C-alpha cells in the first residue's frame, strides 16, 4: 500500500474508533486534540526533509498516539496506542521498520518524554504543540475538567496553576523548529498563569483563607519566584517584538530590491544582446557600401558591449569559502544566516553552530544585523554597477544616433 493511502487508512480507522467508542469524559484527549496533533506534525515535518517512510510514521503515530484512551486505562495509553498502531500496520502489510518507527514515536510521548530520533522529537513536540500557542489557556481548562470527571475529584485552582507553571517551566521543545516558533508564546503563557496565581493568592489572603502549605525549596512557589527572576533577566537581553519585525521587514525589502536589480540587469542584457546580434549580422555586412557609418556603428557596438559587461557584473555572484570554524563561533564572527558561510560544512557541524547561535541572544541578533548589513552592501554594489550600465546605454545610444545622423547628412556616400 502506498504511503499516502496508508495514512488515509489510519485516519479512517481512528475516526471510526472515536465513533464506535464515545467517551464523554474525554473533553481534552478527544478527536479535536488528535487532529490538532496531526496538523502540528504537518507543520513541523514541513521544516525537515523526511524520507517517505519517516513522514508516514509521524502521521500514523499522530493519529494513534492517544488511541489508548479509547481502548484502556489512561495511565498506559501510550503502550495501548502503540500496540493498536502496530496491529493496524500488520493488517495492511506495512514493513517491520515502519512498525518500529511508529511504535517508537508513540512511546516517546510518555511523560517524561524521551525521544531518541528526529521523528520521535517531531511527534513529542506536536503532542504538546499547544503549550506555545494562544490556545493553551482553553486547552488547560479542558484538561483540568477531564481529570476532575475521570477521578470524580475537584482540583484546587491554586494547586492547578502551580502545577501548570511548574510543568511549563520545566518543559522544553525538542526540535529547533518548535523552539523557535513556539518559545515566545509559551513564555507569555507562563506569565499569564503567574499573574492569575498571584491574584488568587492575594484574594485568598484577603479572605483570611488557609494559605497553602509552606513551600519547599523545589515547590511551585519557589519555581514561581525563580521563573520571575529568569523572565526579568530574559527581558533585559531580549529585544522587543518591534525589533524582530524590523529585522524581518528590512531583510524582505533588501531581497525584493535585489530581485528588482537582477530584473533590470536582465533587461539590459537582453536588449543589448538583440542589438549586437542585429549589428553584427546585418549592418556590418553593409559597411563596405556605407563607409560613412563605420564610426557610428563601432560606437553603437561599444555602447552595447559595455552596457552588457556592467549588467553582468551587477548580477555576477561572489564565491565565498563556505566554511566556518569553532573559533569563529566563539568570537561570534560567523554569519550562519548566509549560505555562503556554511555550504561546504557538514550538517552536524552546521547544526552545532546554529544551536550555539540560538542559545546566545547577542550572537543571534548580531548575526541578523550582519546579514542585513551584508545584503545592503551587496545591494549598493549591484545598483552602482546597474546605474553605470544604464548611463552607458543611455548616453551611448544618444551619441550613436547623433553620429549616424551626422554621418548621413554631412558625409553622404557618393554615388
From TrEMBL:
Domain HD/PDEase: 26-141
Ranges of biased composition (kind: Basic and acidic residues): 228-237
Keywords: Antiviral defense, Cell membrane, Hydrolase, Membrane, Nucleotide-binding, Transmembrane, Transmembrane helix
Membrane-spanning residues: 265-287, 293-314, 392-413
InterPro entries: HD/PDEase_dom (IPR003607), HD_phosphohydro (IPR009218), PycTM_dom (IPR043760)
GO molecular function: hydrolase activity; nucleotide binding
SUPFAM superfamilies, A to Z: HD-domain/PDEase-like (SSF109604)
Gene3D superfamilies in the record: Hypothetical protein af1432
Region Disordered, annotated ranges: 194-237
One GO term of the biological process aspect: defense response to virus
GO cellular component terms, A-Z: plasma membrane
Subcellular locations according to the entry: Cell membrane
Protein name: Putative metal-dependent HD superfamily phosphohydrolase
Taxonomic source organism: Chitinophaga dinghuensis
